[in-house]
Every structure is written in structure tokens, then in C-alpha cells.
Specification:
Layout lengths: L3 E2 L3 H6 L12 E8 L3 H12 L4 E4 L8 H4 L3 E3 L6 H8 L1 H24 L7 E8 L6 H13 L4 E4 L1 H8 L7 E9 L2 H13 L4 E3 L4 E7 L2 E6 L4 E9 L15 E10 L11 E5 L6 E4 L5 E9 L3 H22 L7 E11 L6 E5 L2 E8 L5 H16 L16
Parallel strand pairs: 2-3, 2-11, 3-8, 5-13, 11-18
Antiparallel strand pairs: 1-16, 4-7, 5-7, 6-7, 9-10, 10-11, 12-15, 12-16, 13-14, 14-15, 17-18
Helix pairs in contact: 2-8, 2-10, 4-5, 5-10
The structure holds flavin-adenine dinucleotide.
Flavin-adenine dinucleotide binds next to helix 2, helix 3, strand 12, strand 16 and helix 10.
Length: 401
């Protein structure tokens, strides 16, 4: 599967940060992580912290798939509004899930400090605005649900949004105190480098040919004839998990993003991440080097050829959106790209065991909150490996709906 089209901003900004060898010998390890991007690097950090002998492999270069393409907004608010999630899974469970994403932002902040990552982690506020007048009533209901649940929210009218943040053409929105942004490509590299010094073995461009899942462990056969034996395998293989899981558990989409040239002056929305009620929604943030980054224009994933062909048309639409939303800003497009994205029915990730794979866990942080879900995944994996249960695992299990 092609995880992205064209060269994303983060890859060009950072270049190839670290390169690792491919595996050319047989190996035994307690934990084998498959997938070396943001999720795999977070889970590897947890496994090393918990004292496990850990190996990580990837079929590509490290962090070269969706994590290189992400806009890396960190949000406690998931793709399914709290009010809708309450209707799906009940009030207590829905609030717990929102709270977990909120906690994940602070956990990630602490982790960035611990590994001394220069990934530009920054706490921000979040603006979720009504894209159309007809969306206002539902958004106010969402505001009330969040307020009642104790989340730090304010309702802002469109004039106030324009005055405070320079964001135009809204119909009011929810301002939340809890949000953030990072460069996930850089963080994945920094986490892996940090943990490789603590014993994590990392191999990229390592291709799996076959896997035998046993009750007492897993044997992975590589294309080059080498083998890896492990007690537990943890798949952090993102959207490519659809290659090995039979049921249809995630809807794959293509999403498009553009980033502008550096702004000469600090923007009013510098400390804000922005998204809206449109379907598909737009998402927007600034980078540490004062660029505006906007994404959206999602469509069903058909093929990378079609995505490539649509890129210019979609980039132009996103450009127009910036001119409309930020009329006082001189926005000039610098880079455009697209990536694969996944949507689940309840907006929640899949983290845990699957009946078809013995001795194996999956950590699949889908949706607009993929990164915060992967941070929560660290806690779940730590519990699973210690033989304990976790209160969120029933909401993240496979075959739940
Ligand atoms: C344009 C765009 C904007 C986004 N914006 C946001 C956002 O603002 N906030 C947010 O939280 N999320 C966002 N996302 C989603 C986010 O990017 C993903 O949730 C996240 O990058 C997934 O990371 P991952 O490590 O789970 O998967 P991936 O980054 O896809 O990594 C999976 C890795 O597994 C490897 N792999 C797969 N199968 C095998 C195999 N058999 N053998 C070896 N290796 C294998 C792949 O090579 C790949 O490197 C966005 C995504 C896109 C495309």
C-alpha cells in the first residue's frame, strides 16, 4: 500500500534523520515490534522502560509512511463528538475516552522532555468551529456535553473568533484549553535513537515473508531467509494492518495537506489548532517556523494513482480555504502532499489482541487522533505484558461493532 503521495513537509524539513541496518542474521527477542513510525517508537519506549528485550523492524525506512505525512495536531476531542460517543457507548465510557486523549497530550509532553526531543511539542488551545449556520445547534449541544463533563471549554461567537485569532467565516465555535502540536516524524526518530542507546534493536528495510503464531511465541520468517523468534509480537503497522486482518474494521481514506511559506510576522492563531464541523472537516495549525499548515478534502481511498492525480486540484481547494479563513494573511503554498488515513465507526482505535493471532497485540491508533491514541496504547501494552487488564481495553477491542 502507498501510505503517502509526494514528499511531505516534515521529510523535506528534517531530511533522513537516522538510518538503521536491515536484519541479516537470525535473532531471538522477548518483544518484536513491527512498524517503526510514531506508534512503534512509542510502544518500543514503553517496552524498554518496562525492562523487556525489544526489537523493532520496519519494511521501509524509519518513519517514512503516514507519520511523515501527518499534520500532528494533538487533540483530546476525537472524530466522533462527545455527545455522539455518549449515545454509542454510554456517558461514563465516552468521558473516559475523551479524558484519556486529554491525558495523552500531557504524557507526550513529559515524554518529549524525557528524551530531550526537538520535535517542537507545544501546548495549544483548540478551536472547533461551526462551518455552516445549520451546524450551530448541534455544536452548542456538543459544547454543553463537554462542559457538563468538566472539560475546559468556552463558547466563542464568530466576531470574537475573528478578533482574537483572525479566523474568519465561522459561525461560532468551541474553544478548548487542552491541545497541542508536534513534528511526529522527528519525535519518532528521537524516541528510537534514545531507546537504541538503552538496548532497543532496530532494523529497517526488513521484509516479512511469513509468520507462525503459536500459543508460546511467534516465529517470523524474513524474505532473506532469516528468522526472528519472539515471545510476543506487537503490530504497530498502521493502515497496512488491513493486509493481514480479514474483517473490515477500518475505512481507508485519502487526506490532503498543504503548508505555506514562512509568515513574516507572528500569527494570531499561532497557539491554536483549528478544525470544523464540515464533512470532511478541515484541520489547521502553525509550525514552529511560522508556516500555516492545513489539511482535509478527504475522499475514499481508491488508489495512489488517483490520489496523485487529484493532488493539485485538492491543494488548490485547500489554498482557497486558507484565503477564506485567514483573509488578513498572505498565504503562499510551499508544499503539498497526501496520505492514507483511517476512520472507525466510533472514532476509537483498535488496541489489544485479535482471535486470529496468538501471542500478538495490535496498537492501531486510527482517526484524527491517531497519535494521542498511540500514547494511550503505551499504557495498555504495559498492562497487557504485565498480565493486567486496562479499563479502556473493552472499548478498543476488535469485533466490537
Ligand atoms: C495528512 C495526514 C494528516 C494527519 N493528521 C493527524 C493529526 O493532526 N493528528 C493525529 O493524531 N493524527 C493525524 N494523522 C494520522 C496519523 O498520521 C497516524 O495516526 C499515524 O501517523 C499512524 O502512525 P503509525 O505509526 O500507527 O502508522 P504508520 O505511520 O503508518 O507506520 C506503520 C509502519 O508499519 C510498517 N509496516 C507495515 N506493515 C509492515 C510489515 N508487514 N513489516 C514491516 N513493517 C511494516 C510500515 O512500513 C510503516 O512504517 C494524519 C494522517 C495524515 C496522512
Amino acid at each position: 500500500m502507498d501510505l503517502r503521495s509526494s514528499e511531505p513537509f516534515w521529510l523535506q524539513k528534517n531530511g533522513l534523520l537516522n538510518s538503521y541496518p536491515s536484519l541479516q542474521e537470525d535473532l531471538e527477542t522477548e518483544i518484536l515490534i513491527v512498524g517503526g513510525e510514531i506508534t512503534g517508537s512509542l510502544i518500543a519506549h514503553q517496552c524498554i522502560n518496562d525492562g523487556f528485550q525489544t526489537t523493532l523492524i520496519d519494511r521501509r525506512d524509519i518513519a517514512n509512511g503516514s507519520t511523515a505525512a501527518t499534520t500532528s495536531m494533538l487533540q483530546y476531542e476525537i472524530d466522533v463528538p462527545l455527545s455522539a460517543l455518549i449515545a454509542k457507548i454510554g456517558k461514563e465510557a465516552a468521558i473516559q475516552n475523551y479524558q484519556a486523549c486529554s491525558d495523552a497530550i500531557d504524557t507526550l509532553g513529559a515524554l518529549v522532555k524525557e528524551v530531550k526531543s526537538k520535535c517542537g511539542f507545544k501546548k495549544k488551545k483548540s478551536l472547533y468551529f461551526a462551518a455552516y449556520k445549520k451546524d450551530v445547534a448541534a455544536l452548542k449541544r456538543e459544547f454543553n456535553a463537554r462542559k457538563e463533563a468538566g472539560f475546559p471549554v468556552k463558547w466563542l461567537e464568530s466576531e470574537t473568533i475573528e478578533e482574537l485569532y483572525g479566523v474568519s467565516h465561522t459561525h461560532g465555535g468551541i474553544l478548548s484549553d487542552q491541545a497541542g502540536s508536534i513534528d511526529a516524524y522527528k519525535l519518532a526518530h528521537d524516541l528510537l535513537k534514545f531507546n537504541s542507546k538503552k538496548g532497543l534493536c532496530i532494523y529497517d528495510k526488513t521484509i516479512i515473508a511469513h509468520v507462525d503464531y503459536g500459543k508460546n511465541g511467534v516465529q517470523v520468517s524474513l524474505e532473506n531467509g532469516r528468522h526472528i523468534k519472539c515471545k510476543k509480537l506487537i503490530y504497530c503497522n498502521g493502515f497496512e494492518s488491513t493486509e493481514i486482518i480479514r474483517e473490515n474494521f477500518v475505512k481507508l481514506l485519502s487526506t490532503y495537506a498543504i503548508v505555506g511559506e514562512q509568515q513574516p510576522e507572528k500569527l494570531h492563531m499561532e497557539n491554536l489548532v483549528v478544525w470544523n464541523t464540515a464533512n470532511p472537516y478541515i484541520y489547521m495549525r502553525t509550525t514552529t517556523d511560522h508556516r500555516i499548515l492545513i489539511g482535509g478534502e478527504d475522499e475514499d481511498y481508491v488508489s495512489s494513482t488517483r490520489r496523485e492525480a487529484n493532488l493539485e486540484k485538492k491543494a488548490k481547494k485547500l489554498e482557497k480555504k486558507v484565503w477564506q479563513l485567514l483573509p488578513d494573511t498572505a498565504f503562499k503554498r510551499d508544499f503539498a502532499w497526501a496520505g492514507t488515513f483511517g476512520e472507525t465507526k466510533d472514532g476509537l482505535p483498535y488496541i489489544g489482541i485479535h482471535p486470529d493471532f496468538d501471542s500478538t497485540y495490535f496498537v492501531l491508533g486510527f482517526g484524527g487522533n491517531g497519535i494521542t491514541f498511540s500514547v494511550t496504547g503505551m499504557e495498555l501494552v504495559s498492562c497487557f505484558l504485565a498480565g493486567k487488564s486496562h479499563k479502556l481495553s473493552e472499548y478498543y477491542r476488535f469485533q466490537r461493532n
